[in-house]
Amino acid sequence: MITARAAASFAPVGRSVATARSFVRDTLQGWGFGDIVDDAVVLTSELVTNAVVHAGTAADVLCLRSDEGVRIEVADRYPDREVPLQSTAVSMSSPDHEGGRGLQLCAALAGRWGVEYTPTHKTVWFRLDLPARPVGTRAAGPSLPADLLPLADGRVRVAVVQIDRPGTITAWNEDAEELFGYTAEQVTGKPLTDLAAWPHTPGTSTGIAEALRLSRWEGSYGIRGAHGRVIPVYASHLRVRDTGGEPSTVCLLVRDHERAVLQTPLRLPASESTTLPESGQGADPFEVFIGSPAPDDLDGLLQRTVERARDMLDGDSAFLLLATDDETELEVRASTGLPSARQRFARVPVEAGPGRYGSARMPSVHDDLTAVPGAVPLLNGTGMRSVVTVPLKVEGRLTGSLGVAAEAPSRYSNEEALRLQFAADRIALAVESARLGELERLRRGSLSFLVEASDLLAGTLDRDQTLALMAQMTVPTLATWCAVYTIADQASEPELSYVLHEDEERIDGLKALLAKIDPPPPVPTPGARVWSAPATAAHDAALRTSMRSLGLNEPATVSSGIGTTLATAAAVGGETVVLPLVARNRVIGMLTLGKPTDEHFRQEILELAEDLSRRAALALDNARLYSERTAISQSLQRSLLPPGLPDVPGVEVDVIYRAAGEGNEVGGDFYDIFPIRDGAYGFAIGDVCGTGPEAAAVTGLARHALRLLAREGFGGPAVLERLNSAILDEGERSRFLTLLYGELWPQEDGSAVLKVVCAGHPLPLRLRQDGTVESAAEPQPLLGVMDDLELYEETVTLDPGDVLLCVTDGVTERREGTRMLGDDGLADVLTTCTGLTAGAVAARIMRAVERFASDAPSDDMAILAMRVPGLQKD
User: Fold this and answer.
1) Rg of the chain (C-alpha set)
2) What's the pLDDT tens digit per position in 642-652?
3) Nearest 10 degrees: CA dihedral of 403, 406, 411, 415?
4) Distance from first CA to last CA of the chain, Å, rounded?
5) ∠ CA(152), CA(158), CA(161), 5° rounding?
6) How far apart are CA 106 and CA 87, in angstroms?
7) What does the pLDDT average to over 238-258?
């Protein structure tokens, strides 16, 4: 018959394994079953590891107590997961095999065990029988002289409190009145939870109400006295029932530092047992507190350490923090006397707060935390006033911090800090060894296939490369062959996009086979489903090939039109599964995995493939969105540039345009050359502030306005002034614009006359035949900033052989470290272009700009070169 039960659930994270061990250990020790605690903890640890680490689901742990022993059940959320074959008695001869080790231990240690399935859970249970115990004394300590007995502050008060079924107090003895200041009349009928400050000891359950329902329990918590302060107590309780069958709970409470009177005296190592200090001689109790740490799990060791540290310095609370994996933060791993929310896994930076947790690197004493707010963030709002902290160091590295705090100010001095530091030095190596062992187990669990897959998929936004990665990650790790189907939109049919086989010679035959059969239906239901069409088609093809080789007629049941070899059919004839690729609530394709003839997938492989398919679907959809955005940007960019260059009589014209980035954003640079009227041509080169749609809007406005206004007969200044007004009319959407605009008239004598207006743009450069370079215009205000502009145009005559070079600031502002090409650098390059055609000038300028810096250009670049040929043929 079940006499008691305790249950807890643990999240699917690695640290839950240690928490589950603590839960089982505390529960069984509370029930008085210390003889079977170790076996129960080992089995629970293995089964919870299988659930939260390997299966990746939450684990539910249920402890059931009966007269014969204890039954512990561990349930996970994968009811269809099969029991590994390695867990059977057949494989017990291979204890080093990883699979099924938890069930092997169950078979070896438990009296009985089994596996049960429900529609929602799979439960592995085991039962541990209680060993036969002799009647009489169960444990006893040595007979010690009076001077070696633990000290108590005055008379030891043992409060006896009885609680009925609803949790209200029904009995309150005189020692309880002395300890807490309440009379029996004041508390009788009130819930104990109104007085209790829970918990000091974590891991048993979720609160004191749950602990009181256990048949036996022992641990620490606090009782709020009549003066309002919390008095730490050490409690043990027993649940009984009277002759009428009504249950109640009897609690024995002593002051927490007096718990030694209720415990077996410490057993010291043989090397230290002869040096036990005598009471009253001024000996430090931390010699007994430290010793050599008993073999235990990390959580048990840390909890024991903080409790003894608190006792050693007569503190109200204690805490121990360990360095995280990267050692940039300290993580609360054990505490006593602090609120439960601050007890486990809270993290604080090593260098944080006005008091700086950097002080964890050396002993520190704070007389009054109210004078230094935030000095120890862990103690904020706890009522603690004074605190002493010391570092745990191993080979000079900070691996943790141990602290003891008290509610009274100025409790501790440097002497207490030295005592606590000595204690910390004795246990630092043992704690660090246990910490590193725990970290290693966590690392092994995290180094998985999915981590590598996620990194690879996140490293590309190219659709074809993503498809190739999906296939290459599954073959041959998960399957013999793989095919990826994609769906462009909801109205499209699945399309075979990528095929891969572990034997490259089979890929063409496999692709031909799959191309002849209907693709799998795009079902959004998660999970793998069997697809029999490839195996059936492969079987038909193999049968037809065999009959042809024998000169027999093909039966009507064999489909025609599928040409493949027997080898290809054998490679595809096994189990085939389809996993949907679902991204943003839409099926964008299917991942198909196959095995050769007579082979099937293990459930673990399918679950891993399902996880991979979710990541791959998102990566594939991101690649699709990126490709669409790039295509739109490139199309918009082309629409903002002229479709071609006009043929200007007597003038060579050439343009080079380079957009920065990866082609997924619209640049702000533009150029244009267009006929205005007979014998006159307009040209412009400009740069809109910024990139993207807003800049594109201003670019389109500028280019089309220039053509329209110039053909209406307006001169250069009038054209730019009206364009400036149009930009300002855009309001908040407007962007300022630098623009070089000019009009060109070829002359009969072979020269060309230009009238130019340079509105905030890099000045055009004129290259003469003798190699001299000079500016061809004066700077004027840019557009899109001021309402009233007074612009003027300047006339330039290009003689035969002269070159006019116009660029955007992406050319002149090309940088390499602190160096910039600049106007002077551009002029130096231009002086080397004497005698070159316009196209050659533009190409040489671009090469010089690209070679100036090793990094890719960060800004768009446009180069417009115009040259008047010499009187003689160059």
Assistant:
1) 41
2) 777 888 888 99
3) -20
4) 110
5) 155
6) 9
7) 83
For residues 417 and 649, give the distance between their C-alpha atoms in angstroms, rounded to a whole number. 94
Task: Determine the Cα–Cα distance for residues 858 and 810; give it in Å rounded to an integer.
Answer: 8
What contacts 36, CB < 8 A, 6 or more positions away?
Answer: 28, 69, 70, 128, 130, 131
Q: Is the pLDDT of residue 352 over 50?
A: no
3-state secondary structure of 92: helix
Structural element, H or E, at residue 123: strand 122-129
Instruction: Assess contact for 568 and 592: CB atoms under 8 A.
Output: no
**Length reported for the chain:** 874
Q: How far apart are alpha carbons 601 and 507 in whole angstroms?
A: 21
Identify the H or E element spanning 717. Answer: helix 716-728
Could you tell me which of 238, 232, 227, 228 has the C-alpha nearest to residue 254?
232
Per DSSP, 521 falls in state: P
Residue indicated by tokens 């001869």: 93
Q: What three-state secondary structure class fits 575?
A: coil
Over range 814-818, report the average pLDDT: 86
Q: How far apart are CA 651 and CA 800, in angstroms?
A: 10
Sheet strands (E) in 457-522:
481-486, 495-501
Distance (Å, whole) CA 346 – CA 321? 9
**Cα dihedral across residues 501, 506, 511, 513: positive or negative:** negative
Interacting residues of 127 by C-beta distance below 8 A, sequence separation 6+? 69, 70, 71, 72, 110, 111, 112, 113
The dihedral through the CA atoms of 385, 390, 392, 396 has a sign that is: positive
DSSP labels, 628-653: HHHHHHHHHHHHTS-SS----TT-EE
Helix 37-49, helix 16-30: angle, nearest 10: 150
CA distance 103 to 115: 9
Name the least confident of 551-565, 666-680, 774-788. 551-565
What is the DSSP pairing of strand 680-688 with strand 765-767? unpaired
| Beta-carbon-side half-sphere exposure of residue 750 (alpha carbons within 13 Å) | 9
Quick check: 297 and 435 in contact, CB under 8 A? no
What are residue 679's phi and psi, to 5 degrees?
85, -5
Question: What single string gives the DSSP state of each residue in 397-447?
Answer: EEEEEEEEEESSTT---HHHHHHHHHHHHHHHHHHHHHHHHHHHHHHHHH-
Q: How far is CA 96 from CA 42, 441, 589, 653, in A?
A: 16, 17, 41, 78
Pure H helices in 737-837: 809-812, 822-830
DSSP class of residue 837?
-
Q: CA-CA distance, 558 to 555, in Å (whole number)? A: 6
Cβ pair 572, 510 in contact under 8 A? yes
Q: Answer for the pair 470, 623: CB distance below 8 angstroms, yes or no.
A: no
Inter-residue contact 89 to 108 (CB < 8 Å) = no
Q: Which sign, positive or negative, has the C-alpha torsion 440, 446, 451, 455?
A: negative
Q: Tell me the H-state helices in 662-715.
A: 693-711
pLDDT of 423 reads: 85
Both tokens assigned to 795 = 């006339």
Residue 745 CB neighbour total at 10 angstroms:
16
Q: Where are the beta strands (DSSP E) in 208-351?
A: 216-224, 230-241, 247-255, 317-323, 329-336, 347-349
Beta-carbon count within 10 A of 610 CB: 16
Q: Quick: pLDDT tens for 143-158.
A: 667 766 767 767 888 9
Give me the residues paired with residue 796 across strands.
Answer: 754
Q: With the CA atoms of 426, 429, 431 and 434 taken in that order, what torsion angle do they form, in degrees rounded to the nearest 10?
A: -150
* Alpha-carbon gap, residue 347 to 360, rounded angstroms: 14
Lookup result for tokens 């606590």: 420
